[in-house]
Amino acid sequence: MLSFVAILFNVSNRYRNRNNGFIRLLPPHKIIGVNSLDIDYNNWYLCGVHGSHLYLGNYQTPGRLLKVNKDLKIRESVSLAGFQTFPIYKGSYLQIDSPHIYLMDGIKPVIIEGDLPSLHLKKTIRTSYFTGAIAINNHSFILRSVYNGIGNVIVRQENNTDSLKKRILLEKQVDGVFCTDGEMIKVPGSLRFIYVYYYRNQFLCTDSHLNLIYKGKTIDTIGRAHIKVTKIASTGETTMSAPPLYVNKRACANSKYLFVQSALRANNETEYMIKNVSMIDVYAVFDGKYKFSFYLPDFRGHKVRDFKVYGKSLYALYDHYLYKYKLNF
Question: What is the pTM of this model?
């Protein structure tokens, strides 16, 4: 088994570094570095904006927020009230849909709603079990849940009701769970929802009721997930038995564009060119068409570990640093 895993790992590296049958359009000066902020620890994550401030959640302390003004000049640590009354499981996370803030806990399963002006969590919304969730508005949520015999399914749930709308949108290729894993994105300023697969060159765009608008393709040529899964005899659980081939590492959107961090090298790139950068491919939200690409350079020897775009600003996390870029398009 170990030799098999090693072979798959080597195959995965070859895909990342070979010519993968596509070309990136790389016009100059699409992003401009503005400034950075040392946030002390690498357990912060970007969870949203409200007014003139950016908010970061903390993986280790669910009730703690870092409030940073959008110019990264002033920061303040703040605490959420009310979360102490709810037992929270590891893996829960905060999400902001201004002015609302939600604590997403798919294991319990529950969504706890509050508001940023009061910094108080006070409303419990019962849900089905989920592995991912986003708020579409303060009345409904889109969840990713695992259904026996199907795999990952996208579900819309109305606020505090048992009304569920299930859509078999995700296409099974291997096991239906790992092979359909991906990034869930709400398009700001609209009721569109985008799902970007991690292990294949595809993404979906729906309306807020999960009616399909279009199927998009990223510019690479990996149309089938390169993963290997196995079942654990003692528990019956399914797990990955080898490192997967990532195609799309992470993604986010503003009102006009979808930003996808690609894991694969293009034909017009060398290993040296992409050694100290992360590749971001840009697609139109309207129809999913590819527009161009740009690079996020490494910062102080660190690769980007998360990024979000709010309007014309891109905020990137590098270890314990937060960096702001201005988008020049």
Answer: 0.91
Burial of 159: CB neighbours in 10 Å, binned 0-12, 13-18, 19+: middle
Q: In what order do the strands lie in the sheet with 120-126?
A: 93-97, 100-105, 110-115, 120-126
- Rg of the chain taking only CA atoms, in angstroms: 20
Domains of the chain by residue range: 2-327
115 exposed, middle or buried (CB, 10 Å; 0-12, 13-18, 19+)?
A: middle
Taking a C-beta distance cutoff of 8 angstroms, is the pair 145, 153 a contact?
yes
Write out pLDDT tens, residues 258-315: 999 999 999 999 999 999 999 999 999 999 999 999 999 999 999 999 999 999 999 9
Report pLDDT digits (tens) over 100-127. 999 999 988 999 999 999 999 988 888 8
The domain made up of 2-327 has a fold known as Neuraminidase (2.120.10)
Given a cut of 50, whether residue 11 has pLDDT beyond it is: no
Residues forming a β-bridge with 154: 144, 167
User: Before 87, cis peptide (omega within 30)?
Assistant: no
Distance of CA 157 to the CA centre of its chain: 20
329 token code pair:
């398009």
260 in Cβ contact with 281 (< 8 Å): yes
> Would you report the helix, strand and coil content of the chain in percent, each value rounded to 5?
5, 50, 45
In the prediction, which pLDDT does 237 show? 76
